[in-house]
Amino acid sequence: xxxxxxxxxxxxxxxxxxxxxxxxxxxxxxxxxxxxxxxxxxxxxxxxxxxxxxxxxxxxxxxxxxxxxxxxxxxxxxxxxxxxxxxxxxxxxxxxxxxxxxxxxxxxxxxxxxxxxxxxxxxxxxxxxxxxxxxxxxxxxxxxxxxxxxxxxxxxxxxxxxxxx
Length: 165
Description:
By secondary structure, the protein is of the alpha+beta class. It has five helices and four strands, in the order αααββααββ.
């Protein structure tokens, strides 16, 4: 019997739970489960940041901008090994209320592609990465905002934005 590396095993478990959560959201909310998923992402980000603080002493600081909150969450994610490297993300602020985000090598690509193959459109997708960035903005900057995935490609790059409401 083979033994799976702990890091890979953790991602298999995480992806299984994330996929199950989003499938359950679709079971109860049809093709547009975004509100349910947004709330789940908020809880996930709160728990993640609290665990990093409680178990490893990693502290977060409040910020007053969308970009600042996303940058801080990326730093936390790199420290906590949620993200490989900060260079996997490109941020472009068109104005203080709108942040364009490109995610390189997105680990959630397979779940998005499966939904597209089932007939969903990009607008139907709930993007876990952008959704968690949005939740970080809400938690760290106390800014109500929305997010939208605009595109993704087979190389694993996603593009979307976060925008203040």
